[in-house]
Structures are given as C-alpha cells and as structure tokens.
Sequence to fold (160 residues):
Amino acid sequence: MITLLYRCGLRVSEALALRSKDIDPAVGSIRVLFGKGGRSRTVGLDPGGMAVLSSWLAERVMLPVPPDSPVFCTASGRAVTTAYLRRLFPSLARKAGVGKRVHAHGLRHTHASQLRAEGVDIGVISKQLGHTSLLTTIIYLDHVAPVRVIEAVAKREWVV
Fold:
C-alpha cells in the first residue's frame, strides 16, 4: 500500500476502496471509482510501482479471503480502516528511525512534488491527483515544495 500511495498519489480512502478488477497491469493504470466528491478517474502507475503491486496481488491470491475483497484487507477479507493506517504510519516511522512526522497523505504530497520536479505538466499532475481545478494543484504544489523557490533564488548572481 505504501508503494501505491507514493507512486500514484492516491488518497488513503481511494487506495482502501480498490478492488483487483480496478488494476490494469498491462497498461499501468488504476481505476479509482470512489474519489473525493464521488468522482472517478484513471491514474497511472509506473512499471516499478506496478511490479510491487502485482507481487502483492500474487501473494494475496494465496490468502483465504474472498476474491471480491478490497486489495488491502484484513485477514478475514474486510476493508482496512483509515484509523488503523493513522496509527500504523507513525509506528512504522518510529521502527525505521524516522524522527519527522510521517502520515499517509505525505506520500501524496511527495508524489505531486516529484512529478513537478521531473517536469510533468501541472495539468497532468492535476488529473493524476483528482483535482477539479488547476488552481488547487498550484496551491498544493506551492505548499509542498517551497524549497524550490529558495533554490531558484539562491542560484541568482549579483551583477554590478
């Protein structure tokens, strides 16, 4: 799930609602049927991320859960809750020795920021994130990556 949140920029609720039928490994796409505001969209997943997800799906088939259970479910096939993930992420961070605040939504921010750093068009990032307005994406990216402003200004030279 961490790979999916990081490499797709999905909201936690979107990832938790996924079913196996929503994933197309051949194309590298995921159909998000229950996005924010009840909207659906199709997002991309890079080959490395798809390989990790496909590996999980292959393992999941071996588990005694109904095939129509969510992709990320409990051992009995029930959906994992967002409350569980809110507790899990800080716990994993402590175990990994990460001192900063860690939360699932931070992976969404990282995804957006990295896409922009790679030169991906803001319109594409907006579609990937499921924003209805480009302005939302611009504000989102401005909040996420203020370090780019500092880096840009630091590169300037004083010409006399």
Q: What stands out?
A: The chain has eight helices and three strands. The chain has a mean pLDDT of 91. Strands lie at 23-24, 29-32, 41-44. Helices lie at 2-8, 12-16, 47-61, 82-96, 104-117, 122-129, 134-144, 147-154.
